[in-house]
Specification:
The chain is of the alpha+beta class and 142 residues long. 17% of the residues lie in helices and 42% in strands. The termini are far apart.
């Protein structure tokens, strides 16, 4: 039996210049018809875990993440990272830096999970811990 999971570090946080470059694309995405992306999250044993499925053909712009997390991507998707776009096929686990914003485009249904250690007691507290952009989280409408 082989393990075909790639473990990697995401390069440094998104720079101010890269954030500016992403803005027009994100604005276009916000103007387009929105696809509901269900998010499941929980806190267990001091770990907050958040998982969503990005359907084939859908682009997803993430909130600006202000803390280091572990991100798992499983499927076939493109991901912006350090001013580049990388194609991810299969399962990839990243040691993800604080201060990042990513865009994903799913070529096939793709599962994205994020986890981090927390002392938060509620999901709302945990969301506020990882981003100041909680108003952009689709889970806030659930």
């Amino acid at each position: 039996m082989t393990c075909d999971v790639a473990i990697a570090e995401i390069p440094p946080p998104t720079t101010a210049e890269e954030l500016e470059q992403l803005k027009p694309g994100i604005e276009k995405m916000m103007e387009a018809p929105q696809v509901e992306i269900k998010t499941k999250s929980f806190i267990h044993a001091g770990i907050y875990c958040r998982t969503c499925v990005v359907p084939k053909g859908v682009a997803l712009a993430g909130a600006l993440i202000k803390i280091p997390t572990v991100v798992t991507v499983s499927g076939d998707a493109a991901m912006t990272c350090a001013g580049k776009t990388v194609r991810l096929k299969g399962t990839h686990i990243f040691r993800a830096s604080a201060g990042r914003r990513q865009i994903f485009v799913a070529y096939e249904d793709t599962v994205i999970s994020m986890a981090f250690a927390t002392s938060a007691k509620t999901l709302l507290e945990a969301e506020a811990e990882f981003t100041d952009e909680t108003d952009l989280l689709m889970s806030r409408g659930e």
